[in-house]
UniProtKB/TrEMBL annotation:
Involved in targeting and insertion of nascent membrane proteins into the cytoplasmic membrane. Binds to the hydrophobic signal sequence of the ribosome-nascent chain (RNC) as it emerges from the ribosomes. The SRP-RNC complex is then targeted to the cytoplasmic membrane where it interacts with the SRP receptor FtsY. Its EC number is 3.6.5.4. Residues 96-290 form the AAA+ ATPase domain. The chain holds residues 1 to 290 of 461 of the full protein. Composed of three domains: the N-terminal N domain, which is responsible for interactions with the ribosome, the central G domain, which binds GTP, and the C-terminal M domain, which binds the RNA and the signal sequence of the RNC. This is Signal recognition particle 54 kDa protein. Residues 2-87 form the Signal recognition particle SRP54 helical bundle domain. The gene is srp54. The keyword DNA repair does not apply. GTP binds at residues 104-111, 184-188, 242-245. GO terms for biological process: SRP-dependent cotranslational protein targeting to membrane. It comes from the Archaea. Residues 97-290 form the SRP54-type proteins GTP-binding domain. It comes from Halorutilus salinus. Belongs to the GTP-binding SRP family. SRP54 subfamily.
Length: 290
């Protein structure tokens, strides 16, 4: 952990603790209040903020700081550890043959993410391909094809079909010899039964090794509900946060990983196929608290 890296609001809060010789309740309360403010502004779920606050409060007051540790360092370490306990490390990917299913609402960034991830795997020396099963959104086929071209990876879709499950089946057969098959799915504007049923059907045909939930960084308090629904439908193994190049801090992803007991795989930082990074917990925590 780089101490100087944590968010500015937390830094300010910790300044208040810094001068004190012992950690009293009032000082801890000030830090907790500032953390709560920052996390709520970053769209982290209220009950998760409360849980985190309780743990930080408890530990800061009850744990003896290791010898030679200042009050500031002690509280900072606890805050960091509690955040890491929720957010965890980046989702692990084996660099071997696998099928990955992308799920999420319309506009969350699935199609863009499929091309970005395909490019990422191909730079790791694997041979990826994309299957586009979105028959719902007009233009999805064209967009996906163009993104796949830009990522220089093969692509399968059928602009004339209205049968996403059929496309999934054909796509899997088409790419039997590829190392990594990324299956993009249709979203909807909201969680609808039809969407959930469709993705369940695709999942059973594709039998993915991993299902990733793609979330727009600006998703707020509805992240938990979405995460639950997709988790129940296909089992969420990891989360991708898109549009972190904008002003949103992506706190909804924290709720999603907490509720699905998963982790964050990638972050999207722009519209180009190269605008993708593996998740870095330190940077993300710092952004949430900043
Ligand atoms: P889908 O409906 O879930 O497949 O979403 P798309 O992949 O079509 O993305 C919706 C819009 O968000 C498009 O205009 C994308 O260019 C844009 N987009 C996706 N990911 C990112 C990102 O990481 N940053 C920015 N700035 N835009 C993104």
């Amino acid at each position: 952990m780089v101490l100087g890296d944590l968010g500015s609001s937390l830094q300010d809060a910790l300044e208040k603790v810094a001068g004190r010789s012992r950690i009293d309740e009032e000082a801890v309360e000030e830090v907790v209040r500032d953390i709560q403010r920052a996390l709520l502004q970053a769209d982290v779920d209220v009950s998760l903020v409360n849980d985190l606050s309780d743990s930080i409060r408890e530990r800061a007051l009850n744990e003896e700081p290791p010898a030679g540790t200042s009050a500031r360092e002690h509280v900072l370490r606890i805050v960091y550890e509690e955040m890491v306990a929720v957010v965890g490390d980046a989702t692990e990917f084996e660099l071997e043959e696998q099928t990955i299913l992308l799920a999420g609402l319309q506009g969350s960034g699935k199609t863009t993410t499929s091309a970005k991830m395909a490019r990422w795997f191909s730079r790791k020396g694997l041979r990826p391909a994309i299957v586009q099963t979105d028959t719902f959104r007009p233009g999805a086929y064209e967009q996906s094809k163009e993104m796949a071209d830009r990522a220089e990876v093969p692509f399968y879709g059928d602009p004339d079909s209205e049968d996403p499950v059929g496309i999934a089946r054909e796509g899997m057969a088409e790419f039997e010899d590829r190392d990594v098959v990324i299956v993009d799915t249709a979203g909807r504007h909201a969680l609808e039964d039809e969407l959930v049923a469709e993705i369940e059907d695709i999942e059973s045909v594709v039998d993915p090794d991993m299902s990733l939930l793609v979330l727009d960084a600006s998703i707020g308090q509805s992240a938990g509900e979405q995460a639950d629904a997709f988790d129940e439908a296909v089992g969420v193994d990891g989360v991708v946060i898109t549009k972190l190049d904008g002003t949103a801090k992506g706190g909804g992803a924290l709720t999603a990983v907490d509720q699905t007991d998963s982790s964050i795989a990638f972050i999207g930082t722009g519209e180009e196929v190269s605008d993708v990074e593996r998740f870095d917990p330190d940077g993300f925590i710092s952004r949430l608290l900043g």
